[in-house]
Amino acid sequence: MRIRIVDAFTERPFAGNPAGVVLLDTDAFPDDGWLQQVAAEVNLAETAFAHPLPEAAAADWALRWFTPATEAPMCGHATLATTHVLKTTGTATGTVRFATLSGVLSATADDDGTITLDFPTASLTELEVPRNTAEVAAALGAGIVSAHHAGPYIDDLLIELADEKTVRSLAPDLAALKRISHRGIIVTAAAEDPSRGYDFVSRLFAPAVGIDEDPVTGSAHTALAPYWSARFGRDELTGLQVSARTGLVRTALRGDRTLLTGGAVTVIDGELLA
């Protein structure tokens, strides 16, 4: 069985967010315990498993994502990585539809070689600062400008910080963040200099699901897109996730859907023996 490691939301190897991709030749998923063990062995933020669906189905492939610790309800970078493998191996052409825990998601190869994902836009519920955010502020070690809960397919807190420098230099207490009952904590700020090619920056910490810091998080941008589009008055933006690996995500807000665009590179192609 082939397994590939693909760097997503990047145009070069060893950047962006690496994802494991396993294309199954069965008409159903193996046992959940095996899927979780493979994901734990790969030990990346997510490993994606996909199998083809019958022609009459509402989607082309069934797709699931696993962190090293649990199944994920939504994952952008591993969906982009899976699409990249399907395209580069000639397994699929045109727009690919995936049946997932977040409904049917589609992915389309663009003329410039990038891939655009069509995901549901997150809903944002504002939280009162500081009354509802004291624990988060203490764990982050930074003052909070605004806070929102993002759902329903993700369960993240979206936290705006003072500026890009604060986001980049953040060194949170991960043990304290792990005790906060949400999938992850997205921290963000407007770009210091938009002429550098991005409109906002972000980072995501998710120790509760086995990911101390995610390098580039597509699903988080389903919340970042409506947040910053409302602020800037533009539907199309570019976000830079400023983890150590970094990665660019182009976003286009389309009402209850958000388009996420990025590149991908396969860096490992091997055989899964177990």
TrEMBL record:
Active site: E46
MF terms in GO: isomerase activity
Family annotation (InterPro entries): Phenazine_PhzF-like (IPR003719)
Protein origin, superkingdom: Bacteria
Keywords: Isomerase
GO cellular component, one term: cytoplasm
Record family assignment: Belongs to the PhzF family.
The protein's name in its UniProt record: PhzF family phenazine biosynthesis protein
Organism: Streptomyces malaysiensis
